[in-house]
Specification:
about 300 residues, alpha/beta, Aminopeptidase, two-stranded parallel sheet, 8 helices, 11 strands
Length: about 300
């Protein structure tokens, strides 16, 4: 049986602020934390247009990830979280990754209609939820996608870009921690992992960043895997330019460790996992003095952090 979204999570057609930015009183470490998929403010018109019930839509969320890493400001780093849901607009995609089959009108020629994400139905405006079920009762118009991207995607990335650039100016370097969650088996037939760390196969951050994160998690008893199957999405790959002083690391935490996916509710173990992620935040914050000279970076020409 489907469950309704809590009244506070259903918003009127006038959207709430698209982001939540938590800042420390003073930023003391060259880290920025971001959660692009934990948003849970569902516009009423979106729910009305969906053929799926509320709970099915919510299962595309990285549930409560913003709270798992909520200690970032206390450790001296800002935390940026989307308030809009991933099923409504996905900030971990290019600005214009759209599936033409979703739209009643022709898309502009400059839209990316052929990416693997689009083909899977998981573009900037998703066609399906994480389970593969179609979201909408009808086809959309491009103007609707454009409105969501202008109101949601662009403010998220404008803020993230500013945080990264401000941090780099202040400290000479920046580590962006891209926070997500995943099904427990990590999407592979391999042995289950509790956490998957992604650095775009060594190109998005220095080797010491990956080593420090892996060491901290393993020391707390977590089973850690690198880059399989999540090597890093748009945020990690786009912003991570270690030879220019910007490192990016994606973290995927196994959802069943801390939440009941069937009910989209926290488990009693949530507090334990949250405490451990706080320990991880502190371990990464300790990298600050060495970030600028980390070895193991690979140059990727032609990148810019201007979306």
């Amino acid at each position: 049986m489907d469950m309704p979204i809590a009244p506070a999570a259903v918003t009127a057609n006038t959207p709430p602020p698209p982001i939540m930015l938590l800042r420390p009183a003073q930023q003391t470490v060259p880290l920025v934390f971001a959660s692009a998929h934990s948003g849970r403010d569902y516009p009423a018109d979106f729910l009305a247009a969906a053929r799926l019930g509320a709970l099915a839509l919510r299962r595309s969320e990285d549930g409560f990830v913003d709270e798992l890493f909520g200690a970032a400001p206390a450790c001296g780093a800002p935390l940026l979280a989307a308030t809009f849901p991933r099923a409504y607009c996905d900030a971990n995609r290019e600005r214009w990754e759209l599936d033409p089959a979703m739209f009643a009108d022709r898309l502009p020629a400059w839209v990316n209609t052929g990416s693997p994400r689009v083909e899977a139905g998981l573009g900037t405006i998703a066609r399906v939820v994480a389970s593969g079920e179609a979201i909408y009762r009808r086809k959309l118009h491009f103007a609707e996608a454009e409105r969501r991207i202008r109101l949601c995607w662009e403010p998220f990335h404008a803020t993230l870009r500013d945080l990264v650039e401000t941090t780099r100016r202040q400290f000479g370097t920046c580590l962006l921690v891209d926070c997500h969650s995943m099904p427990c088996n990590g999407g592979t037939p391999h042995a289950p992992a509790d956490v998957v760390l992604g650095d775009a196969h060594g190109t998005a951050c220095g080797a010491e960043v990956m080593r420090r994160a892996e060491q901290a998690l393993a020391g707390m008893g977590y089973r850690v895997r690198r880059n399989d199957p999540y090597a890093g999405g748009y945020i990690t790959r786009h912003y991570g330019r270690p030879l220019e002083g910007v490192h990016a690391l994606q973290i995927e935490v196994c959802r069943p460790l801390y939440m009941d996916e069937a009910r989209m509710a926290k488990l009693p173990a949530f507090d334990v996992v949250q405490r451990d992620m706080t320990t991880l935040v502190a371990a990464l914050a300790g990298l600050g003095p060495t970030l600028e000279v980390l070895p193991g970076s690979v140059r990727r020409p032609g990148l810019s952090i201007i979306p």
